[in-house]
Design brief:
The structure holds two protein chains of two kinds.
Chain A (H helix, E strand, L loop, with lengths): L1 H5 L1 H8 L1 H12 L15 H11 L7 H15 L5 H19 L5 H26 L6 H30 L1
Helix pairs in contact in A: 3-4, 3-5, 4-6, 4-8, 5-6, 6-7, 7-8
Chain B lengths: L1 H16 L9 H15 L4 H21 L1 H17 L1 H35 L3 E14 L8 E4 L12 E4 L2 E9 L4 E5 L6 E7 L3 E7 L5 E4 L14 E4 L11 E10 L2 E8 L8 E11 L11 H82 L17 H8 L8
Helix pairs in contact in B: 6-7
Classes of the chains: A mainly alpha, B alpha+beta.
C-alpha cells in the first residue's frame, strides 16, 4: 500500500472508488441476473450507501449520493427525486445508528440494514402506488429486499477488504 | 426515562442536521430538496420540462457509455450461443420465410382493398413511415420494463408512437426527449393494450405481467371456452392508442385448478432487442376535388353518389362492349365450323360413292370368276339332237344360274 500512496492519481482514484462504483451501478442498473430467475434482483446502491455512510467514509459525500439518486430515477424511469429520497433516508438511518452505537457489531448492522431497506422499499412502494398510480408487484419488492439483505454479507467482506487497503 | 428520550432526540437531531467535516449539505436539506424535486417534476412547467429533457439526454448517453463493457460481454455470449444453433435456426427461418411470402401477397391485396374502401367512404388515410432506432439503454428494472431509443422529438417521435420489432408490436413511447425516447414495453405492469383474439374474433385487454409474458384480462364471460392454443393476438385499434391489426403474440392456456388462465407469449423477445422501428404516422384527409364550397354537405354526398353511379355505368358499358366483341368472335367461329362441316359432308359422300363402286366391282369380279367356272353349264347349246336347257348369255336367268354355281332353278 505504500507504493499506492506514492502514486498520487491511483491513490486518489482508490479513495474515490466507492462513489465511482455507485455512479457506475446507477447508470448501469447492475443486478447480475443473467440466469433469468423470476423476481431475482438486489439493490446494490443500497448496500454501498449503507456501508459507507455507516462507516462515515470521507469521500462519500451526501450531495453526490443525492445526485446518484437523480440519475437512478432517470435511468429506471421513476419519478425524479424518489431514489434520492430513498438514499437520503438510508443516510439518515446510518447517521442515527452511528450516533447511538458505542460498540459496533456486524450482526447488529446487518439486521439494522434489513430494517432500513424494508422501511425504504415500503416507502418507495407506497409513494409509487398511492401518489403515482404505478402498478407494481409487491412480491418483487419482497424478493428484492430479501436478496439485498443476503448480498450485504458478501459485499461487506469485499468492502472491508477495500477499507483495509485504504487504512494500510 | 427522560434521559433516554433526550438521547434519542439528540441522536435524531444530529443525524438530520449535523454536517460532518467533509459534508457540504445537511441531510435534512437534501431530503427537502428531494421532496421538492418530486413535486416539481410532476408539475408541467415548461422550464422544468426542458430541464428534465436535458438531464435525460445526458444521463441516457452516459448510461450507454457505462454499459458498453457489460453489453459487450452479454453480446459475445449471445453470439456464441447463436452459432451453436445456427443451422436449425436457418431451416426454421426458411420455412417461415416461405409462409411469410404467401402471407405478404394476401396482405398487400387486403391493404389495397382497405384503401379503396376508405377512399370510397371519404375516410382519412394514414400514411406511416417506419424509422430504425437503436436501443441505447435496456436495463430492465425489476419493477419497470422500459427501454431507451436514440430517436426523439427531432425525428418526429411523439408520446404514443408505436414501436415495433420487425412487424411485431413491442410497446409505445411514453417520454420524448430531443434525441432520445423512453418506450414502455408490453411486458410492463402499466401497459394495457386493446386486442382481438383471432380467429374467434374476441375483444380483450392484454396487460403486462412484469415478466416476459402478458396476461389477458376483461374477457366477456362465456367466451373463454372458445379459445385454443393456436389463437393469435393482434391489436384491435380500440382507443386509437395502437394501430389495428399489429400482431403481438400467441395465446397460452394455463390450467389452474378449476379455472383456466390465459397468457400471451409475445412474438418478440424483449430482452434481446437491439434495434426497433418507430412508426411515424401522419393522417391526411382524402382530397375531394369536386367540392368548392365547404359548407355544402348535401352536395358532397350527392356528388359522391353520382361519382359512384358514373363509375358503375362506366363499368357496365365496358362489360357490354366486351360482351359484343365476344359475340362477334363466337359468330365467326360458328361460320367457320359450318364451312368445315360442309367440306366434311362432301368428303363423306364422295367416299360413299367410292365404296359403292368398289362393291359393284367386287360383285362383277365374282360373277366373272363364277362365269369362267360354271358358264358352260348355264349357256344354251346350239348343237343338233341335243336338248337345249341353258339360257342366253347376258340374260338375267343366265346370271342367276352362274351365281348359283351352274344350278338351274326353274321358276
Amino acid at each position: 500500500m505504500t507504493s499506492l500512496k506514492s502514486k498520487g492519481f491511483f491513490s486518489k482514484f482508490y479513495s474515490w472508488l466507492p462513489i465511482v462504483v455507485l455512479y457506475v451501478s446507477v447508470l448501469n442498473e447492475f443486478d447480475v441476473n443473467y440466469l433469468d430467475l423470476d423476481f431475482f434482483s438486489f439493490n446494490f446502491p443500497f448496500i454501498l450507501i449503507f456501508f459507507f455512510t455507516l462507516k462515515d467514509f470521507k469521500n462519500f459525500d451526501y450531495l453526490l449520493v443525492f445526485l446518484a439518486g437523480l440519475i437512478n430515477d432517470t435511468v429506471v424511469g421513476l419519478p425524479l427525486g424518489l431514489s434520492s429520497l430513498s438514499f437520503m433516508i438510508i443516510c439518515i438511518a446510518t447517521s442515527y445508528f452511528r450516533n447511538i452505537t458505542i460498540r459496533p457489531n456486524q450482526v447488529k448492522d446487518w439486521f439494522y440494514f434489513l430494517f432500513v431497506i424494508i422501511l425504504v422499499n415500503s416507502l418507495n412502494y407506497s409513494i409509487l402506488t398511492l401518489f403515482f398510480s404505478y402498478n407494481l408487484i409487491l412480491w418483487g419488492y419482497v424478493v428484492n429486499t430479501f436478496f439485498t439483505f443476503l448480498f450485504y454479507l458478501i459485499f461487506l467482506t469485499i468492502f472491508k477488504f477495500y477499507l483495509k487497503g485504504i487504512n494500510d | 426515562m427522560a434521559s433516554s428520550r433526550d438521547d434519542f432526540i439528540i441522536a435524531i437531531r444530529s443525524a438530520f442536521l449535523k454536517k460532518s467535516t467533509q459534508q457540504k449539505f445537511s441531510l435534512l436539506s437534501l431530503v427537502f430538496t428531494s421532496i421538492f424535486i418530486i413535486v416539481l417534476s410532476n408539475l408541467d412547467f415548461k422550464a422544468v420540462r426542458y430541464l428534465k429533457i436535458g438531464i435525460n439526454e445526458l444521463v441516457y448517453r452516459s448510461s450507454f457509455v457505462v454499459s458498453i463493457p457489460e453489453n459487450f460481454i452479454k453480446d459475445t455470449f449471445i453470439e456464441v450461443s447463436d452459432y451453436t444453433t445456427f443451422f436449425n435456426d436457418y431451416k426454421k427461418k426458411r420455412l417461415e420465410l416461405s409462409k411469410l411470402k404467401s402471407n405478404f401477397v394476401s396482405s398487400e391485396i387486403i391493404q389495397n382493398e382497405n384503401r379503396e374502401l376508405k377512399e370510397l367512404i371519404n375516410d382519412y388515410v394514414s400514411t406511416s413511415d417506419k424509422i430504425l432506432a437503436k436501443i441505447i439503454v435496456d436495463h430492465e428494472s425489476p419493477f419497470l420494463k422500459s427501454i431507451i431509443i436514440n430517436k426523439g422529438s427531432k425525428d418526429n417521435i411523439k408520446i404514443g408512437t408505436n414501436i415495433y420489432d420487425q412487424s411485431y408490436l413491442v410497446g409505445r413511447v411514453i417520454e420524448v426527449n430531443y434525441k432520445t425516447s423512453r418506450v414502455l414495453l408490453l411486458s410492463d405492469l402499466n401497459s394495457n393494450v386493446p386486442v382481438t383474439i383471432a380467429p374467434q374474433n374476441i375483444q380483450a385487454i392484454v396487460t403486462g405481467s412484469g415478466d416476459n409474458y402478458g396476461q389477458i384480462k376483461y374477457i366477456k364471460d362465456g367466451l373463454t371456452g372458445e379459445f385454443d392454443e393456436e389463437s393469435i393476438i393482434y391489436t384491435s385499434g380500440t382507443g386509437a392508442i395502437f394501430k389495428s391489426g399489429i400482431p403481438i403474440g400467441t395465446l397460452e392456456i394455463i390450467k389452474e385448478n378449476s379455472s383456466d388462465e390465459f397468457s400471451v407469449e409475445f412474438y418478440s423477445d424483449f430482452s434481446q432487442l437491439k434495434y426497433v422501428f418507430a412508426e411515424i404516422t401522419s393522417i391526411s384527409e382524402i382530397p375531394d376535388q369536386n367540392v368548392s364550397e365547404p359548407d355544402n354537405e348535401t352536395n358532397n354526398s350527392i356528388n359522391a353518389k353520382l361519382k359512384i353511379l358514373e363509375d358503375e355505368l362506366e363499368i357496365i358499358e365496358e362489360t357490354n362492349s366486351k360482351f359484343l366483341e365476344e359475340n362477334i368472335d363466337l359468330k365467326n367461329e360458328i361460320n367457320n365450323l359450318n364451312n368445315k362441316l360442309l367440306i366434311l359432308n362432301n368428303e363423306l359422300s364422295s367416299k360413299n360413292i367410292t365404296i359403292s363402286q368398289f362393291n359393284i366391282d367386287k360383285t362383277e369380279l365374282e360373277f366373272l370368276r363364277l362365269n369362267l367356272e360354271f358358264g358352260h353349264k348355264c349357256r344354251k347349246s346350239n348343237k343338233l339332237f341335243q336338248k337345249s336347257v341353258g339360257f342366253e348369255p347376258g340374260s338375267d336367268e343366265y346370271k342367276k344360274c352362274v351365281l348359283n354355281k351352274g344350278v338351274i332353278i326353274n321358276d
